[in-house]
Amino acid sequence: MANIIRQKRVGDEICRILAKMCTDGTLRNLPLLTNCAAVEMNRDLTYARCYMSIPGSEAVKKATLQRLEKLKGFMRHEIMQQITLRQAPDLRFYLDTSLEYGMQIDAKLAEIKAQQADSPVTSATESTEPTEEVK
């Protein structure tokens, strides 16, 4: 249990460092709003899966991931200066698609809401069946 907590804490700290490096201009030639969304560490803290949020087209995202791969050594050096670890974790970069997925869900919900607003709604008190009058 303690190992899982340490993995989470080290991953959060690496994510904070990477996000700071992306926003303060330490990493040059990255698109604006590039950010580290999350970092998952393996059990022995030697590998870090870094999920990066990169705005733009697919070509821009691919080029940015290649740029991050080239800057991997510099980022490992910066991480080791700020965190005391036995070994610098190997950084592996992945696209964080949760923002795009959330936008797709919002668009579908808005579409459903617009369809419901266009169609007439029958209330529970209005019955579609004819009622018989009681004498």
Automatic annotation (TrEMBL):
Its main location: cytoplasm. The keyword Cell inner membrane does not apply. Keywords: Cytoplasm, Ribosome biogenesis. Pfam families: RBFA. The lineage of its organism: Bacteria, Bacillati, Bacillota, Clostridia, Eubacteriales. Gene3D superfamilies: 3.30.300.20. Monomer. Binds 30S ribosomal subunits, but not 50S ribosomal subunits or 70S ribosomes. This is Ribosome-binding factor A. Belongs to the RbfA family. PROSITE patterns: RBFA. The keyword tRNA processing does not apply. It is found in: Cytoplasm. Residues 116-135 are annotated as: Disordered. The gene is rbfA. InterPro entries: KH_dom-like_a/b, RbfA, RbfA_dom_sf, Ribosome-bd_factorA_CS. SUPFAM superfamilies: Ribosome-binding factor A, RbfA. Residues 119-128 have a biased composition (Low complexity). It comes from the Bacteria. One of several proteins that assist in the late maturation steps of the functional core of the 30S ribosomal subunit. Associates with free 30S ribosomal subunits (but not with 30S subunits that are part of 70S ribosomes or polysomes). Required for efficient processing of 16S rRNA. May interact with the 5'-terminal helix region of 16S rRNA. HAMAP family: RbfA.
